[in-house]
Amino acid sequence: MTDRDDGPAAGRPMRADARRNREKLVAIAAKAFARSGVDASLEAIAREADVGTGTLYRHFPTREALIEAVYRHEVEGLVAAADELSQSRSADAALAEWMQRYVDYIATKRGMRDSLKLLLESNSPLFAETHGLVPRTFRGLMEKAVAAGTIRPDADSADVLHALSSIYSASDGPDWHERSRRLVSLIMDGLRYGAPHPSSGT
After folding, report:
1. Residue 31: inside a domain, yes or no?
2. Which residue would you say has higher pLDDT here, 198 or 137?
3. Do 50 and 111 lie in a common domain?
4. Which of 130, 124, 29 is nearest to 75 (CA)?
5. How much is the average pLDDT of 15-39?
6. Which domain holds residue 21?
7. What is the CATH number for 18?
8. How far is CA 48 from the centre of its chain?
9. What string of DSSP letters covers the chain?
């Protein structure tokens, strides 16, 4: 474990090793929050990232700062995944895989919900900066699949995203993640039903 890290500094670019440490902390924190909520131990997060707690606090002086970084990271990850999947999969397969990744995004968001509510009430710029990114990304994937004829042409992205978002408020339980994945698969089956040119889904 190392605790040598410059951390962010105004007007100075972040060192490559500091950037890697920051990215690692955010990725590990996302999994910890999804698993245990925002009360997850910051010390445990730092230990799993193989950095000292001093490094963690230099990057994220407060728990709220880490939560903001995790939320932004999850949104940006979903947006980036759409481009990556569209380049390597058929339009409907890209949509299906993205929807499954959306479950992981919701899991992390559920773990942070109380803190996100407080951030919203505090007028944090976080939500203004990320507003609309996920719906626009999803709409783009849907439009590509409709154009390819691999999902039904009457599908509306806002309706489908509303159905997907219902898993956010589903009751907690050890099988929540698996149930959510099955629900997404059922929704995707419905989108493929009646498609002009159904694909094999690969």
Report:
1. yes
2. 137
3. no
4. 130
5. 92
6. 1-61
7. 1.10.10
8. 20
9. -B------BTTBPPPHHHHHHHHHHHHHHHHHHHHH-TTS-HHHHHHHTTB-HHHHHHH-SSHHHHHHHHHHHHHHHHHHHHHHHHHHS-HHHHHHHHHHHHHHHHHHHHHTHHHHHHHHHTT-THHHHHTTHHHHHHHHHHHHHHHHTSS-TT--HHHHHHHHHGGGGSPP-TTHHHHHHHHHHHHHHHHHTT-SS-----
Domain count, the chain: 2
pLDDT tens digit sequence for 71-89: 999 999 999 999 999 999 9
Q: Is residue 95 part of a domain?
A: yes
Residue 88 CA to residue 121 CA, distance in Å, equals 40
Q: Grade residue 12 by pLDDT with cuts at 50, 70 and 90.
A: low
| Residue 107 forms part of a structural domain | yes
Q: Which is higher by pLDDT, 129 or 52? A: 52
Q: Is the pLDDT of residue 151 over 90?
A: yes
> Same structural domain for residues 83 and 161?
yes
* Residue 149: predicted pLDDT: 96
Nearest one of 25, 102, 31, 79 to 56, comparing CA atoms: 25
**pLDDT for res 10:** 47
pTM of the model: 0.84
With respect to residue 47, please indicate whether it lies within any of the assigned structural domains. Answer: yes
**38 and 125 co-located in one domain:** no
Structure tokens at 141: 């994937």
Let me know whether 32 and 55 are in one domain. Answer: yes
